[in-house]
Description:
The protein is about 15% helix and about 35% strand. The protein is built from 7 helices and 23 strands. The strands form 7 sheets. Strands 1, 5, 6, 11, 12, 15, 18 and 19 form an 8-stranded mixed β-sheet that branches. A 5-stranded mixed β-sheet has the order 2-13-14-16-17. A hairpin with a 2-residue loop joins β22 and β23 (about 345). α3 crosses α6 (about 290-300). The chain is globular and about 55 Å long.
Amino acid sequence: MMRSCRWAIFLSLQTLLLCSTAFTQQSVIQPEPPNGYRRLFRALPMKAADTRSNARFRYSPSALTIPLWSYSVNSLGNLYSGAVVGRAPYFHGHRSTTTPTLMIPVVLAFQYSGIVFNPATVDPCLGDSVEHVVASSPIFQPIDWILNGTDMGTTQYVDAFQRAEFWSYVGGTPHHTMMGLTVLNPIQVTVPAQFGLTEFGSCGPIGLMDINWWDSLVQSEIIPQLASQGVNTTDLPLFLFDSVVEYENDNPNDCCVLGYHSAYMPNGLLQTYSIASFDTSGAFGGDVSILSHELAEWMNDPAVNNPTPSWGHVGQVQGCQANLEVGDPLSGTLLPSVNLNGFEYHMQELAFFSWFYREEPSLGAGGLYSDNGTFRTDAGQVCQ
């Protein structure tokens, strides 16, 4: 039986308001919503974290999967093992690996209102297409990164983060874990009225969609259909939305998921994938911070089941978690903005491997525990 794992980014309302303030570039006159919308009189909340299952996958490095390396680490008296995308940072002969990353713009047509959200066409609130702005971002375009006062070299952001978290091993080496971007043709999906609705932000519409309906569609129909375009278990399919988020439990008030990464096992092979929304409506604000969060978590926890000692009460996690989700402890905490190709981008700060496994000293750049120095010590005692 195929088992599915999923981990999503949510934020507390307080963090949401901080993010929205940070990303607000100008005030926008709010027009009256047309028929088919509900006005957002409130900021939509993003809630505590979600996961599907902790099914253990077997990793068999081969030409049939994304590149993976395994690790085992003793922490707080217990042994923890997992797998990470790329090549092990502690081997001699460091070299670069690249995972084909297939960006799939998803055109979502909502029966509820007749509104269509298309990331491949010019968004009037953005003045460009979401597809173009994301593809041109430091997520995929290399720039020189200085993290914790240390030069990571000219590379993509998620690779720079992973170099920083294993800096004691890879500093001064050509070790890189890259994402080779290809933008595929948009796919079109109709969201039935019972599985989605539209609301109205400060600039434009926002779609809300049932996450279980969508995720089931991804695994049962969309990814298999994309095989004709070359999508398979050696790739990372990345589904990109323009101003569409998800809700849970068949309840639009149980909202909102802005992005997640997941994995399942078609034909006994690990298939990873990720979803991210780029909000232009003004309901949330932000640009690629969600995507930086999800892709870093995909790289560090590709099957969504790398166990760690329990940690929590930080970032988006109100309770306790016990996995290597490097974005969750710092959701809403941003690096200094990066101006690239005429756009100001915001990456999320991310927690290091050593933070989760309580390693002293840290393997990370500057001896710290996150890539912009917010975490100066590890996660501490087991969360209760």
